[in-house]
Structure formats: C-alpha cells, structure tokens
Amino acid sequence: MSIHGLLFDASQFTGAGIQRPQALLVMAARFPDLAIHYDGIAYSLMLKNAGWIQAAIQGAATAMGLGSVPIGTGDAVAFERATGLDRYRHGSTGEIAISVPRVQSS
Prior knowledge:
By secondary structure, the protein is of the alpha+beta class. The protein is built from 4 helices and 3 strands. It has helices at residues 3-13, 31-38, 42-63, 76-83; strands spanning 23-30, 67-71, 90-99. Helix 2 packs across helix 3.
C-alpha cells in the first residue's frame, strides 16, 4: 500500500465509497524535533497544529466552492510507504480530502 492506499483509505473515511478524493493533503510532523523543545506537550501540540491547518484549508476550500473533509484517522504505515519516511520520526498528524462536489440529480 502506498499513495493508492492513502487515497483508498481517505475515500472510505469520508464516506465516498470507491470514489477517491481529487486531492488529499497530509500534514506531517518531525516527532523528535518537537519533543526536544516541548517535552510532554509535543504530541498535543502536533495535533492542535494539524487541527488549525485543517480548519484554514476547509475555510479556503469552502470559499472556492470545493468540498473538503478533515480526516481524524490515518494510516502511519501507508504514509511511511508513500513517502519513504520513518513513521517513528516523521509521521502524519492529519489529513484533509478535497474534491469538487458532485452535482445531485433530482
């Protein structure tokens, strides 16, 4: 599983079924770098930063008429395979799927 795995997981988590999002933005952090400076609050800080970035992206996507879904789960192994980064040092902290909304037929 690699980039296709990340996109497949995103389509499942957003409820889109087999339709993949047109874009998937994955936020990542360097765990050791933050832990050195912030000790016990490093993980909390990483998740808070991912949250405000997702909120900003979602606001921009809405203003542009795009659909966006912040994803609260992620696959560390799929991220590692897609990027080649060690998941214990550089891991994903949040994802947001973006697509042009489908036109509903009546």
